[in-house]
Design a protein that fits this description.
Layout lengths: L6 H7 L4 H9 L8 H12 L3 H18 L10 H6 L3 H9 L6 E3 L6 H7 L4 E5 L2 H8 L3 E7 L4 E4 L2 E4 L7 E7 L2
Parallel strand pairs: 1-2
Antiparallel strand pairs: 2-6, 3-6, 4-5
Helix pairs in contact: 2-4, 3-4, 6-7
């Protein structure tokens, strides 16, 4: 069974100490044969977030084939990675929407959203708070985060989200 990330895990993985800890974990093999020894080494450095760090590194390694080299800097959950749109498919879809504003109402970890933000205004939302925070760990900057039920400008008009449908909203732009 896959590791189940919680909000505290994602906050840690996006926090000030994360880069060094993730780099240390990425330097380890983390294979089925070495995993127990690797976990022991990391526990002395990472403590209670060891499982989240190891799962993140292993998911990033798996994601490269699906999402490309940029996936090395993303955060994932196992289920979200399985469901993520492969990068070539996301780019193909986005190419059909050049200049068109899009609201991806089930953006999950943002695989489609990153491609969409590269060709026009893009807003993403999802019911899963962990996935929204994981999406923030992607290779883009967030220019706005609006609370549930908030109004935000999109394509020159105000859009009001439905509280039952949208847990959070992100207006994303590709990294400069």
């Amino acid at each position: 069974m896959a590791y189940r990330f919680d909000l505290a895990d994602v906050r840690f993985l996006t926090g000030p100490d994360a880069a060094a800890v993730l780099a240390a974990a990425a330097a380890l093999p983390l294979t089925d044969d070495s995993l127990l020894a690797d976990l022991g080494r990391l526990r002395t450095v990472v403590g209670e977030r060891t499982a989240a760090v190891v799962e993140t590194v292993r998911l990033r390694r798996r994601a490269i084939g699906k999402l490309g080299a940029a996936a090395e800097g993303w955060l994932f959950t196992d289920e979200a990675l399985q469901q993520a749109t492969p990068a070539p498919v996301a780019r193909h879809r986005a190419a059909r929407l050049v200049g068109v504003g899009v609201h991806d109402v089930t953006c999950s970890i943002g695989a489609d959203l990153v491609a969409l933000a590269g060709v026009g205004p893009a807003v993403g939302s999802d019911l899963d708070e962990v996935r929204v925070l994981v999406c923030l760990g992607g290779p883009f900057r967030v220019s706005e985060i609006a609370a549930e039920g908030a109004k935000f400008p999109f394509l020159g008009r105000e859009i009001e989200t439905l509280e039952r449908m949208v847990a959070a909203q992100l207006r994303l732009a590709t990294a400069a």
